[in-house]
Design brief:
Elements lengths: L1 H13 L5 E6 L4 E6 L1 H129 L4 H81 L4 H11 L21 H25 L11 E4 L2 E4 L6 E4 L2 E4 L5 E3 L4 E9 L3 E7 L4 E11 L6 E2 L4 E5 L9 E8 L2 E3 L1 H9 L3
Antiparallel strand pairs: 1-2, 3-6, 4-5, 6-13, 7-12, 8-9, 8-11, 9-10, 10-12, 10-13, 13-14
Helix pairs in contact: 2-3, 3-5, 3-6, 4-5
Length: about 450
């Protein structure tokens, strides 16, 4: 049955692939190998499959190279955009700092002017009260003088009448009458001068009241301008602080704990003792002073955020084009040993590409580590640690203090690796977390 099927197949292929014979000649004998149509068809089919597989593999490699080139271009564009946004953020921060400084200067000037106006207003009020007191005293004196004048006139009339009755005492009564008239003339002059002084004091009080109204108007205008300045500063600080606060929260870090840690590490004070001086700027407890203190607290918070951002790994460990090849979490082992946990992020790039520290810290390991190959570990603040594995060269030593952006090694293929790449890890209190959490959290800010 099988020979019949084989015969029919060979007969069908005979027209396209006639039977061929391959002769092998030696000194003593001549032999040949018969190539049936089925055999030729199998050889041709195998060759076609090999050629097709070769073409397909070449196409896949070309597409992968093209994709890698596109990824590099995209990474370069993203890096350019990142640098541009960073420059804009830096310029905007500098402008806001300058605006804050100018606003603080204007606020201090406004406070001094308000203090001067308040001093003038208080002086005017004291002067007005003194004038009112003087007018009251003058009025009382005037009433008492008028009463004494009336009594003196009554006494003069009595004396005049008595002198007319007593003949022997006419000359003495006449002298007393002249003295009384002189006294009355003196009192009248004194009353006139008192009335003039009262009128002058009344005019001065009216002028002081008008000046007080002007000072009150200027004070209200100054208060309005101060409120506008405060509102602009508060909006600017809110816009600047909220993205930083969101960045830390997205990275799983508590902003309050970070600020407490930074404040604890940057709380140095000292200096020689000097004489004690008192200032009235911190005693009023006015709303403006309260808002100014709140602005200063926000500026201090933003500055501590800036310090914390440089101490946490919110940057890329490479500044060249890379391809993300294996992420954090479970994956199939590249060496065929089942499903394993991957505790970092793999970034494939060119051999010898610079590897950079992603935050300020201290090098705790710089050497060979099983599985990692050449490994650099850096301890940062807040219980954070970063690891950089499979390096081709290490450029730091244990105990070195590094800053964000310092070159610590070169990308390589050492250790348990299938190709040139960087294995990047972030650990919090010894526990590995997804590094992309920090990288993505920083993209919206830097």
């Amino acid at each position: 049955m099988l020979s019949r099927v084989s015969y029919r197949i060979n007969a069908a292929l005979e027209r396209r692939l006639p039977e061929q014979r391959l002769f092998l000649k030696s000194d003593a004998d001549t032999r040949f190998i018969r190539l049936r149509p089925v055999t030729q068809a199998l050889v041709l089919g195998g060759g076609a499959l090999f050629v097709a597989w070769t073409i397909l593999a070449t196409a896949i490699l070309l597409m992968d190279n093209i994709g890698a080139g596109s990824s590099r271009e995209q990474a370069q564009r993203q890096q350019a955009v990142f640098e541009e946004r960073l420059n804009r953020m830096s310029d905007d921060r500098d402008r806001r700092a300058e605006e804050t400084l100018r606003a603080q200067q204007r606020f201090n000037l406004a406070l001094r002017q308000v203090a001067e106006m308040q001093s003038r207003l208080l002086a005017s009020e004291d002067r007005r009260r003194e004038l009112e007191t003087g007018v009251d005293v003058i009025q009382k004196t005037l009433r008492r003088t008028i009463k004494e004048r009336d009594e003196a006139r009554a006494t003069l009339a009595s004396v005049t009448y008595a002198s007319s009755q007593e003949k022997g005492s006419a000359r003495g009564a006449e002298g007393k009458a002249k003295d009384t008239e002189a006294t009355l003339a003196y009192l009248s002059d004194a009353l006139g001068m008192t009335a003039q002084e009262r009128d002058d004091m009344a005019r001065t009080a009216a002028t002081a009241d008008a000046r007080t109204a002007e000072v009150e108007t200027e004070k209200r205008l100054m208060q309005r301008r101060t409120d506008e300045i405060f509102a602009k500063l508060e909006d600017a600080l809110t816009i600047s602080v909220e993205p930083l606060d969101k960045m830390f929260r997205n990275a799983g870090l508590s902003p309050d704990d970070l600020i407490a840690t930074v404040r604890k590490g940057y709380s140095g004070q000292g200096g020689p003792l000097g004489p004690i001086t008192l200032s009235t700027s911190g005693l009023s407890g006015s709303p403006e002073e309260t808002r100014a203190n709140a602005l200063l607290d926000s500026l201090d918070r933003m500055n501590m955020y800036r310090i914390a951002a440089f101490k946490a790994p919110f940057s890329m460990p490479v500044n060249t084009a890379v391809r993300y090849t294996s992420g954090f979490g479970g994956r199939d082992d590249p060496f065929g040993r089942g499903h394993r946990k991957h505790e970092g992020q793999d970034m494939a790039g060119s051999y010898g590409a610079p590897i950079l520290a992603t935050a300020d810290g201290v090098v705790t390991h710089a050497g060979w580590e099983s599985g990692y190959g050449r490994l650099v570990s850096i301890r940062h603040a807040y219980g954070l640690e970063t690891r950089y594995g499979h390096l081709s060269q290490i450029r730091v030593n244990v105990g070195d203090k590094v800053s964000r952006g310092d070159r610590i090694g070169d990308m390589g293929n050492s250790g348990r690796s299938t190709g040139t790449h960087l294995h990047y890890e972030i650990r919090v209190n010894g526990k590995a977390i997804n590094p992309m959490t920090f990288i993505k959290a920083a993209r919206d800010v830097f």
